[in-house]
Amino acid sequence: MSSNTPAQNPVEQDEEMLKRVLLHPSSLLRAPQFLGMKALDREAFTKKIPTVAAYIKDKRDIQKVRKAAGPVFLLDPLDRTIVDPKRLYGDEGKQTYILPLLPSVKIDDESTMPADLAQLVKENKVELVSKEGTLTYVDFGSEEILKSILPRDRYDGIHHGFTLTGHIAHLNLHGEYANFKNAIAQVIMDKNPTVETVVSKIEDVGSHSEFRTFPMEILAGKLDTQVSLRSSGCSYDFDFAKVYWNSRLENEHDRIANLCSKGDAVCDVMAGVGPFAIPAAKYNRALVWANDLNKDSYESMVQNIQKNKVTNLVYPFNTDGREFIRLCSKALLRDGGKTINFDPNPPNAPRDPAINTKLKPIETYTIPKVFKRFIMNLPASAVEFLDAFIGLYAGLESLFQDPSKSAATPGEAEKFPLPIIHVYTFNRHNIKDIEEAAKEICQTVSGYLDYPMRVERTENLRDQYVQSMQVKSKENNAKKATFSGEAESALAAPKPEESFSEGSMSVGYVRAVAPVKSMYCVEFRLPWEVAFRTPSKELTEMEKKLEQMKNIWLRSDEKTQWPGKPKQ
Ligand SMILES: C[S@@+](CC[C@H](N)C(=O)[O-])C[C@H]1O[C@@H](n2cnc3c(N)ncnc32)[C@H](O)[C@@H]1O
Questions:
Q1: pLDDT at residue 400 greater than cutoff 80
Q2: Per the database entry, which stretches of residues form a coiled coil (predicted)?
Q3: pTM of this structure
């Protein structure tokens, strides 16, 4: 198009250009295809591509040329930035000012380029030259490389996805993708600067390890599984090879922590290294009794409690979850009413208000006699621990709010509500079949409680939480609404409504774990009949042991400050 060409209607002109852009081969910048490449050959990704190079004669014209050549630039595969000429043309790209254009630009055909560019060519401000460019492994993103070598993924990355835990990328490979583990590990190391180690589990988590750890194979990078990371606004240190951690549960940890309120007593039965307990204490000032049977988890949890300065709010234990439910509940009945102090100031801050104007007052909490909620995140088997709630408060009916009475009945408001239980479980049905999942889960839960429960609602917890955070961050201006923001904003966050009629449960979808395995959180208030049922049968050996232990606790020195010493 020369300056003599009759002026075109601008809309038509834009459409013309659009057509031409659309005609350009989109595969130009795609990585070459090596479906089935199991040993990564980086060299093989070197690819020659035809381009047109625009040589700009005077660097003062750079902006003019950029503006004029807009629609015919060679953009990266995501159509965002111009492909770097230094990479495309090697040394020449470094020395001269060149911009790469699409090969659909024909040097001797003005109609293939924007009119303004043709004009600059005419004015000798820019010279167009057909030129071969070179793309290498470095130019392609990890998705692009993986797509080029892996069999087609039918499950949205679930077959070859990885989770990041500190510096460790943990591959979760299923089926035929396992054969590509080394190549995938190399690509992940190459393309993610923060990844220093890539591991893969050898066996299915849960079916082989009661602690939900897994024998792992280090596929690439340094042999170091000691991790430091931040999650839910808290810091954690642990050995990834010895304890359970899943970064994909951060939203769920936040959700539960956010349900807790100041001074609530919370019992985290399978606490791991503390990702529910620590944020609930740090940001919502819950008093958390946190237990894990795995000694390594317990030890990391103790460190993490100190690290996050919630020592007076989270009390770590190392025992079996079933025993813990019963012993802790009894101990709380005995020791509730005592007070604990929490100093929210940094340890080294001056305590003299005349010197430290930011000094916060010491917070005092009265330990409740009853847990507000129990958290049981051991999806492979936590429902089996539910029988520990049968008869938990037998004989203590007068302490509790009776669900058959109205809240206005005199004296009811001063009593304790029965605890809410959040128990995690797996089910073969995913979110699409949540009603089916709920039916099956309800049956199982009813079995372990020996009480007919019913499903009151099903929920997509994952989506709900993400949406609520989006709404909050809009309202509260980004950071403030999340745990990574200020503690005060989390404290002030409105708590979701938790209403459970007697014997009803909600079944919430948390996440897909594998193509036919999803994680759910079942939530319900402990039914009255279950809590106060008098065991009719003879005590089992385990129950006898519990009774004995209970007596030891009850005899223990009253002066021992509760929260008592962690049970070793
Ligand atoms: C899925 S992990 C959850 C850990 C933590 N709550 C989280 O969200 O990351 C389950 C935890 O249960 C612990 N565990 C396994 N059996 C247990 C038992 N009988 N009693 C208490 N904890 C147990 C494991 O050691 C593991 O840390």
A1: yes
A2: none
A3: 0.79
